Amino acid sequence: MKKVIDRNKILSKLDEIGLYLDELEEIKPADFEEYRKSIVKKRSCERLLQISVESVIDICNVIVANLRLGVPYDEDVLFEKLIDKDIISKKTGMILRKMKGFRNILVHKYGEVDNEKVFEHLGELNDFEVFKNEILKFLNNSSRGCN
């Protein structure tokens, strides 16, 4: 049975990430002091980072499900499956693990969120672009039957 990639769903999620990152760029404070002082900016940045990472994980889930690579028991295994199929690089897999860990802190340990760490992540938005480029490359190759 032929494996069909839901390109539209993946592209839609990539567009969502782009919109979230555009919003982040618009509200991102110029420095840590500005970030620290504005509760609205802090919470907005945290939420936008969280849903951006969740969209990345959603894309990974769609690809793994579409390619029928099995049901991963956690997100780290999800990333490993994509690395094993050369859909994402090992470096990107490490970045995704870091993103996932950060998202988990935002979601599950909200009272323990380190403002400096969140601000640092605002400087790493290019990681999303790296992921996007690898996924677009995969989609282009899969549309040519290379997968």
Account of the 3D structure:
With 147 residues, the chain is mainly α. The protein has a single domain, classed as bsu32300-like (Four Helix Bundle (Hemerythrin (Met), subunit A)). The protein has 7 helices and no strands. The chain is elongated and about 55 Å long.
Topology:
Blueprint: H1 7-27, H2 32-37, H3 39-66, H4 75-84, H5 90-108, H6 115-122, H7 126-143
Helix pairs in contact: 1-3, 1-7, 3-4, 3-5, 3-6, 4-5
Brief digest:
The protein has 147 residues and is mainly alpha-helical.
In the CATH hierarchy, what is the architecture at level 2? Up-down Bundle
Which superfamily, in CATH terms, is the homologous superfamily?
bsu32300-like
Q: Major beta sheet, specifics?
A: none
Strand count = 0
SSE class: mainly alpha
Helix content: over 70%
Task: Indicate the mean pLDDT.
Answer: 91
Do you know the CATH topology?
Answer: Four Helix Bundle (Hemerythrin (Met), subunit A)
CATH first level: Mainly Alpha
SSE string: HHHHHHH
Unreliable stretches: none
Q: Tell me the radius of gyration.
A: 16 Å
What does the overall shape look like?
elongated
Beta percentage is: under 5%
Overall structural domain count: 1
Write out key terms for the chains shown:
147 residues; mainly alpha; Four Helix Bundle (Hemerythrin (Met), subunit A); 7 helices; 75% helix
